[in-house]
């Protein structure tokens, strides 16, 4: 890695040594705080770590905004920087749009002509600067926030403006190549996910014998099934499990995590959760859980999971208890296939489309012989295990690329790597 000829001690812990000709300055002398309110007709903005500060209407993970009190939100102008509640995790965000945002955020704008906005954007999102932000955090757990009165007295580095422009150009070119490679890797993961869904859907509805005689299933989304399979309503395969945790047999709950059930990471005291957990449903191992709420807001299909152990989960979910001679793992895969096709959407009722057991139990499902269900599960498990290993390898590559990108940016903006107009 090419370095500058001479370095000096910056006297700043997060920066360490910097090129001898660079300057340092306190943030409060480089930025001024904007705290303007009374603009209720401006568009609502949200601060995102991936896209900067953008209109909430553009954000895929948008949240509901209460339609009142807009006059108390803070004005943000294009080019401002927003210190959000999570900036200590991902850096300070740049505003690409004008609008209004939470009064809990701090808005600052650049007033020093010796710094370019593009350089500051890199600096504020660099790993090194994020480490500085973590030293300015107050509060505990979910209430953590950056204290600007502390941050504004911290120093930042100021290279010559010509070097700042060179850094931005250099990093931009390098990051475009890295991002393109990451995008290609992410496409590979998408293709593997689609392959996995295809294998599951094909196998649970057609079986493994390609030469078997077929018949019409009378199930629109399945079509033909092996001739020896039976077709029955879901009520013949499952009963609804509504057993409550009324005696607090379990004090720790489970939650959905990408199509699996995992333990909740509780932050409160157990005593504070008792009243809630008394109304949770007790799960047996191999119960199948469907997140049947808000089907009209389903952006990602991960609504079905099989319970790996006994435990509890919110009673808002639909819990299916497999009847005798029903292979829970086969039907877990079958319901996941239905989930990926968005088939639950057509079953929900009410304004928010919620699926009940009364509705679910009417659905026709295929019933292969129990021995065949077991063979199908073993086949899918084997195929999915191979696909998951391939995905894991690609995800490791993506993680390494993102870490390299972060190191590159930090090394450039802190002077560890030499980038000048002559590069």
Q: What structural class do the secondary elements suggest?
A: alpha+beta
Low-confidence stretches: none
Shape call? elongated
Report the sheet-strand fraction. 15-25%
Q: Cα distance, first to last residue?
A: 13 Å
Q: Averaged pLDDT, please?
A: 91
Radius of gyration: 28 Å
Q: Looking across the biggest beta sheet, what order are the strands in?
A: 4-11-8-9
**Helicity level:** 25-40%
Distinct helical segment count: 9
Can you put this structure into words, describing what you see?
It is built from 9 helices and 26 strands. It has 423 residues and is α+β, with helices and mostly antiparallel strands. Helix 5 crosses helix 7. The chain is elongated. The model has no long low-confidence stretch (mean pLDDT 91).
